[in-house]
Specification:
Elements: E1 7-8, E2 15-16, E3 18-20, E4 23-24, H1 25-40, H2 57-67, E5 90-92, E6 109-111, H3 114-123, H4 125-131, H5 134-151
Antiparallel strand pairs: 1-2, 3-4, 5-6
Length: 154
């Protein structure tokens, strides 16, 4: 077994057993205490950075709200004001990922309740037809076909 030798600490100059960065146990623990104190200092109140760049959808959502007079296109529910709505209430008929150029086209967006939006995007057509009037859902799919034909210039 190798026995550790005492060396001179670069911080305090005492001869002792060396632990980290050529320092003795005492100097290493002091350095560690300073680091933890620095982390507990209060940081100035800096507002968090914006996570997302503005896309322009807010203005389009406002125009859709006005166009539909605050009424859901499927259920007929009246929203009291624009502030009562959230992005989940604005459904893109043709998705933003597949058709990025139609993202800000107001004809591609409908004001709906959150449940309609969820079923349209995630649950399939049969769930929509089970829950809501057939003529309203048919209207959405007619709009979808019309937008696709205009997109592909058919």
């Amino acid at each position: 077994m190798i026995k550790p030798k005492k060396k001179i600490c670069v911080t305090c100059g005492n001869e002792d057993y060396i632990f980290s960065k050529n320092r003795c146990k005492k100097c290493t623990s002091i350095d560690y205490a300073k680091k933890t104190q620095d982390n507990t200092k209060t940081k100035p109140n800096i507002p968090p950075k914006r996570k997302y760049k503005p896309t322009g959808e807010l203005l389009v959502f406002q125009s859709v709200f006005i166009r539909q007079r605050g009424i859901c296109a499927v259920t007929g529910r009246k929203f009291a004001s624009f502030e009562e709505t959230s992005p989940i209430n604005y459904m893109h008929i043709l998705s933003k990922g597949a058709y990025p150029s139609l993202r800000l086209l107001d004809r591609n967006i409908l004001l709906v309740v959150a449940d309609v939006h969820d079923k349209y995007d995630n649950r399939g057509n049969d769930k929509l037809y089970e829950s809501y009037p057939k003529e309203k859902i048919d209207y959405i799919f007619e709009l979808k076909q019309d937008l696709k034909s205009k997109y592909y210039n058919v």
